[in-house]
Amino acid sequence: MNNAEFFTKQLEEKKVLIASHRGVVGGNIIENTIGSFNNALLHGADIVETDVVNSVDGELFCYHDGYEPFHFLTAKHIYHMTAEEIRALRFTNRYFMKIDQGVQPFEEALEFLKSKNCLINLDRRYRDFDKTLKTVRKFGMEKQVIFKTFVEGDLLKRVADDFPDIMFMPLMGKAKEIGELEKYDLNIIGCELVFAHTDDDIVSTDSINYLKGKYGMLWANPITCDDELIISGGKNDDISLKEGFDAGWGWLIDRGFNVLQTDWPALVLNYLRERGIRK
Predict the structure, then answer these.
(1) Is residue 163 part of a domain?
(2) Whose C-alpha in 37, 50, 85, 257 is 20 to 30 A from the C-alpha of 64?
(3) Does some domain include residue 85?
(4) What are the tens digits of pLDDT across the range 42-101?
(5) SS3 annotation, 203-255
(6) How many Å separate Cα 35 from the centre of its chain?
(7) Nearest in space to 38 (alpha carbons), one of 51, 23, 28, 21
(8) Domain tally for the chain?
């Protein structure tokens, strides 16, 4: 079985896969933790997305840097902390209450997810593959884990030269990046497309048809992190919840996307069932 066979089978069977953004959170269930990952699977997610960072002394943790002031009431960046300092951190939950939960070690997350019938997408690893991939190989999880980077020559060359077997997903925002992508021999299992407007050239009919025809999978991000960051042309979770699922998730599916990364996996699953895409 090659590394992409499980992923390909899931996509063929389910038609549209649901990726859960940092797991499903609420109350004392904190993003990027085993609790949020398990919650995502209970909500019907096919893919668990997690951010991965490293301590100053090289240990890997599941965390999205930049949220330290909110989560830990500190301005110190997690990349500047030792593993011991990170392990001592305790989260503030959604109610701004300090709770006895710490940052999730990456190895513990992999150990939990290895027994689950799901895929895993790693974010925040754009320029630091070595330690992460070594850990993935340690757990024998190459068939579950999807890596990604921006379409930049030095990054693509490094992936092609040093990590030719990993399941790779380029993160693309412009049609001209297609030519750069094709200069390298990569194990591409699909493309993540980021676009501010629905008429951007990366989501033109020609681009969509070409990329989907060649690689099979197109990943969209209807997640809404704030009012300013637009990464799916406004066809996002908020629009789907406020104006109807067809206005957001439906538009993306009809455009050709067959992976949706969302904060509302159970609602997306119900929508796919209503449309007859899922049984």
Answers:
(1) yes
(2) 257
(3) no
(4) 999 999 999 999 999 999 999 999 999 999 999 999 999 999 999 999 999 999 999 999
(5) HCHHHHHHHHHHHCCEEECCCCCCCCCCCECCCCHHHHHHHCHHHCHHHHHHH
(6) 17
(7) 23
(8) 1
